[in-house]
Amino acid sequence: MTQTVLTKETGPPEAPAERPSHRWWILAVIGVAQLMVVLDATIVNIALPSAMQDLDFSTSGRQWIVTAYALAFGSLLLLGGRIADLFGRKITFLVGTVGFAVASAIGGAAPNFEVLVSARALQGVFGALLAPAALSLLSTTFTDTRERARAFSVYGAIAGAGGAIGLLLGGFLTEHLNWRWTLYVNLVFAVVAFIGGSALLARTQRDRSIRLDVPGTVLVSAGLFGVVYGFANVESHDWGHPASWGFLVAGVVLLAVFTWWQTRADQPLLPLRILLDRNRAASFIAVLISGAGMFGVFLFLTFYLQSSLHYTPVETGLAFLPMIAALTVAATSSATALLPRVGPKPIVPLGMLVAAAGMAWLTSLELDSSYAANVLPPLIVTGLGIGLMMAAAMNLAISGVTTEDAGVASATVNTMQQIGGSIGTAVLSSLAAGAATSYIEGKDPTDPLVQAQAGLESYATAYWWSAAFFAVGAVVCFFLYRRGVPEQAAGDAPAVHM
């Protein structure tokens, strides 16, 4: 497919490049900010038992520490992306960074459960500003085909490995300091991102002729909230409970109305032209499915390592390092060497199939399995698969859009990943719990061996379904992606040169 080179601008031309090397410093700043947002989806997970004991809240309240972040983040991402387009990416990036840091500080100092949940929700709000601004800055800064490939290989590696890094860092901080440092650590990331962003990012001028699509904002935010909240309730209720299916149905209906409204609005929040390119649509689907499938390895393998193999939090985090390395290598190779030569059609589906094979391999784990012989090989295979598809999909998801659409296109990518992760967490948790209950039926539920085997059955079920997610994604992406290498001229979107 040959992509049209778009040159529409909404403001005066940017200043010419004076020091091109600054682009790579911008990448470092964006990478730090993105890592802060991505790892926060998992870094608190390992700290939850300690937080529960310290703040004295129940297991039923535990999920809301995770869900509060996902609800705010997932439902407000498209709004955050459009705000970045309307008011400037630099100012949105900096405000998001400062707000995220303040929310993290409040959470770290939380005296009770209510303050902690509120702080997590506030993190999600500012994360929804920061994440799309960061990705759109990357898109508009790197427009040379080769440079963009290298930049997106780094960004894709961060997006894919952030969850595992969160587990490693969360385990270290919880074990050697205390759970509050899983939130305080964001202040370090935020200071680096804010100083770097203030010094290096170019200020873009606001186009005052553009107005915010208020009805579209309300519809999509409420719709995404309904979907995320409905799936989150599946963990504490069943699929037949009104709190689950009711919110899911309401969310889907609101999103359908939102889609209809976008065809009528003068200045739509999500211009449907962004979704009409087949390669871009396939990339959005790839990110959605990978977000769901990745939780099978991050969440349930964490349970297995700690519950079945009795790893400490730090040992659990270290166990994921080979996967991070494999993911990084694959992401770099995918974006820089493979995508420019063969295009996305073979790369993304192949990556998903490799990830599916790795997840299926994990189902062979037993209570007496060893890390080196049984855990490490499928972990590396899964990392290679995710890295292979993630960087390529994220690159193509926002290539070829106009500057005024860069923020909302970036927000759509982040929304897909977040919604995919929320769906994956809820569906896999529900299926795993059902598998454990089925195994225990007719057996002594107080027998430690029965409990351990039930846990193993639940993990294997989650791995199988994660493999199924990736396999379905491979088929869908194979038929959606066009053949050949997309033509990406250096000016397919106006650059923000530094």
Keywords:
498 residues, Growth Hormone, Chain: A, 17 helices, disordered N terminus, disordered C terminus
Explain how this protein is built.
- The chain is mostly helical and 498 residues long.
- The chain has a single domain (22-201, 269-480), classed as Growth Hormone, Chain: A (Up-down Bundle).
- The protein is 76% helix and 0% strand.
- The protein has 17 helices and no strands.
- The protein has helices spanning 22-39, 48-55, 59-87, 89-108, 113-141, 145-176, 181-200, 214-234, 242-262, 273-276, 278-308, 313-319, 321-342, 344-362, 371-397, 406-440, 448-480.
- α11 runs parallel beside α16 and α14 runs antiparallel to α15.
- The radius of gyration is 22 Å and the shape is globular.
- It starts with 21 loop residues before the first helix and ends in an 18-residue tail after the last helix.
Summarize it.
Helices cover 76% and strands 0% of the residues.
Architecture (CATH level 2) name? Up-down Bundle
Task: Report the count of strand segments.
Answer: 0
Give the termini distance in whole angstroms: 31 Å
Cα radius of gyration in angstroms: 22 Å
Return the average pLDDT rounded to an integer: 78
Instruction: Supply the helix-strand structural class.
Output: mainly alpha
Helix content: over 70%
Q: In CATH, what is the class? A: Mainly Alpha
**Relative strand content:** under 5%
Number of helices: 17
- Following the backbone from N to C, one meets helices and strands in this order, namely HHHHHHHHHHHHHHHHH
CATH topology, by name, is Growth Hormone, Chain: A
What is the molecular shape?
globular
Fourth-level CATH superfamily? MFS general substrate transporter like domains
Work out the oligomeric state of the chains in this entry: single chain
Number of domains: 1
* Low-pLDDT residue intervals, each spanning 5 or more residues: 1-20, 489-498
Main pleated-sheet profile: none
